[in-house]
Design a protein that fits this description.
The protein is an alpha+beta fold and about 150 residues long. The chain has 4 helices and 4 strands; from the N terminus they run H-E-E-H-H-E-E-H. The longest helix is centred in the last third of the chain and has 30 residues.
Length: about 150
């Protein structure tokens, strides 16, 4: 077991190391990008990279407080589901799911099928490769279709 401070430092090192690992990639438009804090440009829509002691996950979270707007955005993703699958892959789609703060959101996500543990450096490579394999195509998809969502936001 790790102390709280050791766990915090390892988590920080994990994400810093991932940032360096991803340094070889620019966004689809050729710009520098912070992969861990991906900016969608759409309010209340987030691309999340998560890793803890049990798993790793890449997720699109739609967190609009207005359920109607949240559903509109989710439905737009559904309209693009075939293209999404072709570009990004097969992900899990949840129209209504509660996040860690017990807030109802919509979520499209994929979990790593390998054991990834931020506290075990031997698993980091698998986690980094999983994130890379999913966030880079997601960036390409978003580059192609983000304007639709920005228009919906208006």
């Amino acid at each position: 077991m790790f102390s709280k401070e050791e766990a915090k430092e390892l988590t920080k090192l994990f994400w810093t190391s991932f940032g360096k690992f991803m340094g070889k990639h620019q966004s689809f438009h050729g710009k520098h990008i912070k992969w861990v804090n991906y900016k969608t440009g759409v309010r209340d829509m987030y691309f999340r990279l998560r890793a803890d002691s049990k798993k790793a996950e890449v997720a699109i979270e739609i967190q609009h407080k207005d359920d109607g707007i949240r559903e509109l955005f989710y439905d737009q993703f559904l309209e693009l589901k075939a293209v999404f699958k072709d570009m990004v892959g097969e992900w899990t789609w949840e129209k209504d799911i509660y996040n860690d703060q017990s807030i109802l959101i919509s979520k499209i996500y994929i979990e790593c099928d390998r054991k990834v543990n931020v506290y075990d450096k031997n698993t980091w490579k698998d986690g980094f490769e999983f994130f890379e394999k999913n966030i880079v195509p997601l960036d390409e998809f978003w580059s192609e279709f983000c304007e639709i969502f920005k228009y919906l936001e208006k």
